[in-house]
Amino acid sequence: MCKMKKSFRYLTGLFFLLIALQFFPSGVTAQDSIAADSGHFNSSDSNRIQQMISMLPTDSGYFSSFDSRKIYYEVRGNGFPVLLVHGFIVNSSTWKNTALYDSLLAAGNKVILIDLRGNGKSGKPHNEDAYQYDAEIKDIMLLMKHLNIYTYDVVGYSRGSIITARLLVWDRKVHKAVLGGMGADFTNPRWPRRLQFYQALTYDNVPELHSMVENVKQSGLDQQALALLQKYQPSTPAGVLAKIQNHVLVIHGDSDMISSSAEQLASIFPQGEIAVTPGDHDHAAQTPEFAVAVMQFLKKPEE
Known about the structure:
Elements: H1 2-23, H2 30-38, H3 43-54, E1 58-64, E2 70-76, E3 81-85, H4 99-106, E4 110-114, H5 135-146, E5 152-157, H6 159-170, E6 174-180, H7 192-203, H8 210-218, H9 223-231, H10 238-241, E7 248-253, H11 259-268, E8 272-277, H12 288-299
Parallel strand pairs: 3-4, 3-5, 5-6, 6-7, 7-8
Antiparallel strand pairs: 1-2, 2-4
């Protein structure tokens, strides 16, 4: 196990070093370059890259959304903005454990994180109207206004991809979008999985989701807010998505059960692409391969 961990740290560190060599050549020494070329890599190289990232400008705080709810956000770096939208039963901090987060910063992007309402440090109202009528989409659009951002890319994962798809419909500021860990099922307003999650979180009467409910309780999460997020989760019809002209990447893990549905989702978009990365639904977004695929897509010139 220890050997595997060292191997993973080596590959991840080398990955970030190569990115730094490409985008921050003045901040990487000749010794670093030799190490990358020869494969002789040590932890101090990775630390040097992390130090460069830690010096980037940061901003964090709250803003008042359309209904006066406090929404938490973090911003790090300069350059073209990329918004990362987290999934269900997690918050924006999970992105910091991914290769993609550091890759974007190393590439010179401004990375924006948001705790969607009902999650993390953001407000968690228990009234139903707080989650209706694309409330989360309004939060994101108002955050971009608050940050004076006029165009941006967006990467969503799992439920965050559902929000991202909806954002493509409403916000003309979106440039490119990545939908990770999600298939086409959410286009069905009566999606059985969404209804099951709502039932489980409200009544705990779905045996196969009992462990999920227990995890919510043990983690101290707001179960009622999470139930309402499922009840009023937006559904965007395939016919509406088919009219979107943005370049969209749909990406999933090779062990994720949504593979065929993900291909269906990619085929809906006129400018849709599909990519596969190692991992299951819970781990694919953390891999260096996921970061490489997303970075290549975001940096690729549009035809």
